[in-house]
Amino acid sequence: MQFLQNLSIQARLLLLVIAPVFALSCTLLMFDFQDQLQREESKLSQHALTTAKFLSAVVHNQSELHGQQYIDRLLKASQLEHEPYMSLVIADANNRSLASLGTSFNVEQPLPQQDTVVLQQSSFDITMVRVFTTEPKHVLIGYIFVAIDKASLIEDHRQAFIKNVGYITLGLMLCSILVYWVSRSISQPIREMTTALKKFMIGNQEVSQVKHSLPEIQTLQTTLNEISREMQHAEADMRDRIQDAQAQLRYQARHDALTGLVNRQELERRLQQALDDVKQHRASHIFCYMDLDQFRVINDTCGHLAGDEMLRQISMILSQRIRAEDTFARLGGDEFGLLLSYCEVEKAIEITAQLRQMVETFRFMHEGRLFQTGISIGIVEITADLKDVGQITRHADAACYVAKDNGRNQIHLFHPEDNVLLKRHVEMEWVSRINEAIDQNDFVLYCQGIYPLQNRDLPPFYEVLIRKRDEQGGIIPPAEFLPSAERYQLMTKIDRWVIQHAFMALQPLFKMQQQTKPFIVSINLSGMSLGDPNLLAYIKECFSTYDIPANHVCFEVTETSAIINIDNTIKLIQELKRMGTRFMLDDFGSGMSSFSYLKHLPVNFLKMDGSYVRDITHNKVDLAMAKAIQSVAESMEIETIAEYVEDLAALECLKQIGVSYAQGFYLNKPQPLSEALARHIGTISAQHSTARLDI
Ligand SMILES: Nc1nc2c(ncn2[C@@H]2O[C@H](COP(=O)(O)OP(=O)(O)OP(=O)(O)O)[C@@H](O)[C@H]2O)c(=O)[nH]1
């Protein structure tokens, strides 16, 4: 079959049509030849027998065969003279030939005794009939032999057969020529088409006209040319699209998707050019680092989409003031970079002052509310002594940091000896120390008691406070490291560390299955943690891991951080309160709109801001504020706590106005959490823990 597949159309037609027809014709001819031969043979045999019988009938009443005339008459009567392939012999009773017609022959003795018999010879068939006299006596008087010459009969038929085969061969040869011509008329255009297609493949735009084309091939050619045209259109279209996409990619690689401004990579490339220019040609270029002020508030109150819109609007407004030769870029978040080309410091200050002014006067409208923001700008002059682009951006960033530190919405020109920069350096160091302390558990938990003033049966609180161990084993207060943790977004990590370790400290108390005196451990949550959507899941996991009853835990959130993350905070409070956990609003009264937000925060306790408590016995306003807070809390059925209680007079005053709990150095100083808890359940002496509440 494989061999057939490799054959050309001509070869296939010849092999599959002509050859079988030839073979079949020859076979049929052969059968016919055999058949005819047999029929002829039997016809002749029959004829020979009839003739012999006829002759025997003619002579049967003779007593013997004699007389030439008589025999000739007999031969004539046989009517066999026109059958050249036969011989006829008349012999007497002794088998001596009396007369013959055709080639004479002798029949060997003894002759068979039958009256009629066919004797088979090598190339003859001899029909023998015995001749008898009739009445009165039945006497043998002779023999009549009729021979059929089989060889000549076969030869005659062979000639006819060869002639027929010749005719068939001739016919088939003519057919072959016809088949060859027809198949060539098919294969030739296919070959030409193949050549045309090869040329088409190597760049010809059209499949060229095939000379001896068939209608089918012409249709194929037209279709291919149509496909080719379509492909050319598609290719041109695709090329355009690729070019567009490449241009878009080039654009995207250099621009910020949100604002359309140049991006950080492109700015850094241009800064490098500027630095080279300064080093080679002493040109003067300025770089400014700009950061929007309190942008987080927009995101938190209006959502990120609104924040994006504000970034777009501010970028557009500032772009209008920036010269074509300058580069205004978005570096990420709410940070922008401005490269002022061929610009002196004084001019840069003038331009940035205008930009700052534009941001200050800009109002962002969202859902009917107007928002205002500021921008802090750090300026650095690109000088030849700057090592690289990284140093330019670091200096500008540092100057912007100083501008923030100076109260935001400021412009600051970079100066290496800035005190604030030194402070920032210290803070940066704290970042790695805090991370290390978290990994190596170098923090320790302290606590300060919060005791009931009105009803002694209420359980005390222990507010958990974090400290850090120093290398010499001393204790570092939180004021040294928490500001850095807040600035560098480490508060979530710290809060989680505190929650986990406070729970670890509590676990043994509940494991002992002792009837512990009721108490509540109070843990502070930073604003950053309140904005963390995964905090709730983390706290729940800690409750189940350490198996701590939820009603022994209270979380303290400050008013400002709760407000910034209001939705998340409300959800957190609702979910955990359902489990029995309590919530305390810390520093209450420090914000401007404390009372209005109180309605939305379902807390159990209010901790008055220490600033009202410290001077409550001397300052009437503080006293009035404390009373007001107490009155609002009572009407909302919220318990109050006063912190910073530093003397007996303050304690008495707070008790009188109805404050529920008190906390402060007068009552109790911070002590290690584990010790405080051990004292509480009485496993160690309670000597130092007793709060001075005997008033
Ligand atoms: N809408 C929006 N917000 C972003 C995008 N990238 C970063 N932010 C947010 O921008 C805020 C940047 O805040 P910071 O610059 O750290 O702080 P800030 O609130 O501006 O306060 P100061 O810079 O200290 O004045 C963060 O809340 C980020 O989540 C952004 O592409 N779109």
TrEMBL record:
Residues in EAL domain copies: 427-684
PROSITE patterns: EAL, GGDEF
SMART domains reported for this sequence: EAL (SM00052), GGDEF (SM00267)
Keywords: Coiled coil, Membrane, Transmembrane, Transmembrane helix
The GGDEF domain, residue ranges: 283-416
Regions crossing the membrane: 12-33, 165-183
Database matches in InterPro entries: Cyclic-di-GMP_PDE-like, EAL_dom, EAL_sf, GGDEF_dom, Nucleotide_cyclase, Rev_trsase/Diguanyl_cyclase
Protein's UniProt keywords contain Transmembrane helix: yes
The UniProt record lists the keyword Transmembrane: yes
Positions in coiled-coil regions: 217-284
Descriptive protein name: EAL domain-containing protein
Source organism of this protein record: Methylophilus aquaticus
Source species taxonomy: Bacteria, Pseudomonadati, Pseudomonadota, Betaproteobacteria, Nitrosomonadales
